[in-house]
């Protein structure tokens, strides 16, 4: 039986969490096909959906990891590449419907869901244990498109990547934002 997405699997990024939920849903549909009479075409459709969505998700997840300065980004990116390569290779080597069902089960359960359950939870662990800025909620898309300004706090060697909107509030309105770890106000790098 496949695991289901729960709040405990949240990486505390709404866009990534929604994508993970969708991946669990697609993987569940894929896994369900392994116990039914289905055609090769039905399995190929779900595999294409899974592969396409996985590629989109990996791109967004890598951008998120970059935005929080995740130290294992390159290693994680390599794992993503390996999953896509293995998925593509597995599909290319299919000989019959039973083989196709077996590959589908492996892709759905082992590669994707175990990756989320193990590897992606390391991203959340890092996010939870590092210096975070207490800033108002902004959408993932807004953060990705905005210019970032470097700020520092009292944490050693920590640089906060502050969105331009927040930088403007600090500079023009005298707003104060504190590091969640050291509780000290952040300051423009070089001040």
Automatic annotation (TrEMBL):
Database matches in Gene3D superfamilies: Hemerythrin-like
Descriptive protein name: Hemerythrin-like domain-containing protein
GO molecular function: metal ion binding; oxygen carrier activity
Family of the protein in this entry: Belongs to the hemerythrin family.
NCBIfam families: bact_hemeryth (NF033749), hemeryth_dom (TIGR02481)
Alphabetized Pfam families for the sequence: Hemerythrin
PANTHER family to which the protein is assigned, alphabetical: BACTERIOHEMERYTHRIN
Top-level division of the source organism's lineage: Bacteria
UniProt entry keywords in alphabetical sequence: Iron, Metal-binding, Oxygen transport, Transport
Domain Hemerythrin-like stretches: 14-123
